[in-house]
Design goal:
It is a single chain. By secondary structure, the chain is mainly alpha-helical. Helix 3 crosses helix 6, helix 3 crosses helix 11 and helix 4 packs across helix 6. 71% of the residues lie in helices and 0% in strands. InterPro entries: MetI-like, MetI-like_sf, Phosphate_PstC, Phosphate_Transport_Permease. This is Phosphate transport system permease protein. Its main location: membrane. It is a multi-pass membrane protein.
Length: 337
């Protein structure tokens, strides 16, 4: 009898019926909408800035056009505070000179101090002291300019008179310090010190943040090779932060160029091309002159003042473009290089 062995195989189980695949298009669609909305918002903001800038420039040109095209004699007769026979260019020139001189002196004073303070906060001071000092520096930026003007006119001007008199007596052979020093010293050098104090927190804050972003590996490598703390800062931190220092200086320069109340309350105005920093009645800035003459200006006078504002607008635009060009030339250096 032959026995047949029957193989029992496991019953085949068919896969459960699956419902048709439904791709999750809802979240993807929402993400696409969010990206499109963000791109549209960013583009609109950029275009809006350009439109506002163009509108300001167009307004200045249109309102200044009567003064730009008028005869010098007509302007002198229509505007009481405009010198007789002096055309608009001869009137604006000394104001541009005084504006640039005050801003340049303020930068010369403020930039080294700001860089030193930023380096102390970022690389030398203990953390607790650095946080407190950084907070105090930032508070200086919140003080209104009229407060700086009162401080400069009522406290700083009498304090600086002995110093300016000593400079005039000792270094009077140098044209910059030609004297005798004015009493009270409502001169361009006093204005420059006040402007330097005003722009110092802006430059310091930007430089501090740039120095804190310096590559840590570069700093540690310099210290490992035996460099002192100052050599490490000079070789690793300052080259990395040079574009930031330039940008910070240009931000401070923008505020110094347009400052009004502090200059108006301190400076004894004049309209000359003079490098005598200790003589009163030699300089005036565009913004301070606009604030001084605008309340009593007639239609022609307002046009003249707007023309000077157009000159300040062009100066600010040129300065910012030059700063961008300088920073672009320096941007090749980075922490990854």
């Amino acid at each position: 009898m032959t026995s047949s062995t029957s193989r029992t195989s496991a019953p085949e189980t068919s896969p459960p019926p699956t419902s048709p695949a439904t791709p999750r298009r809802t979240s993807r669609h929402t993400g696409d909408l969010a990206n499109s909305a963000f791109a549209w918002t960013a583009t609109s903001a950029g275009v809006l800035i350009l439109l506002v800038l163009a509108a300001v420039a167009l307004f200045l040109v249109l309102r200044a056009w009567p003064a730009l095209t008028a005869n010098a004699q007509e302007l002198s007769e229509a505007v009481s505070w405009l010198p007789d026979g002096e055309n608009l260019l001869e009137f604006v020139g000394p104001l541009v000179f005084g504006t640039l001189l005050a801003a340049a002196l303020a930068l010369v004073i403020a930039v080294p101090l700001s860089v030193g303070i930023a380096l102390f906060i970022s690389h030398y001071a203990p953390r607790r002291l650095a946080n407190g000092l950084g907070y105090l520096i930032d508070l200086l930026a919140a003080i209104p300019s009229v407060v700086y003007g009162l401080w400069g006119a009522l406290w700083l001007v009498p304090l600086l008179f002995p110093v300016w008199r000593w400079l005039s007596d000792t270094l009077g052979f140098i044209p910059l310090f030609a004297g005798p020093a004015s009493d009270p010293p409502r001169v361009i050098l006093t204005v420059a010190i006040v402007l330097a104090v005003m722009i110092l927190p802006i430059i310091t804050a930007v430089c501090r943040e740039v120095f804190l972003q310096a590559p840590r590996l570069h700093e540690e490598a310099a210290l490992a090779m035996g460099a002192t703390r100052w050599e490490m800062v000079r070789l690793a931190v300052l080259p990395f932060g040079r574009p930031g220092i330039i940008s910070a200086a240009m931000l401070g320069l923008g505020r110094a160029l347009g400052e009004t109340m502090a200059v108006l309350m301190i400076l004894s105005p004049g309209a000359t091309y003079s490098f005598a920093l200790l003589l009163a009645g030699k300089h005036q800035t565009i913004a301070a002159n606009i604030a001084l003459q605008f309340p009593e200006a007639n239609t022609e006078g307002v046009s003249v003042l707007i023309a000077t504002g157009l000159a300040l607008f062009v100066i600010t635009l040129v300065v910012n473009m030059a700063a961008r060009a300088i920073v672009a030339r320096r941007k090749d250096f980075s922490g990854a290089n």
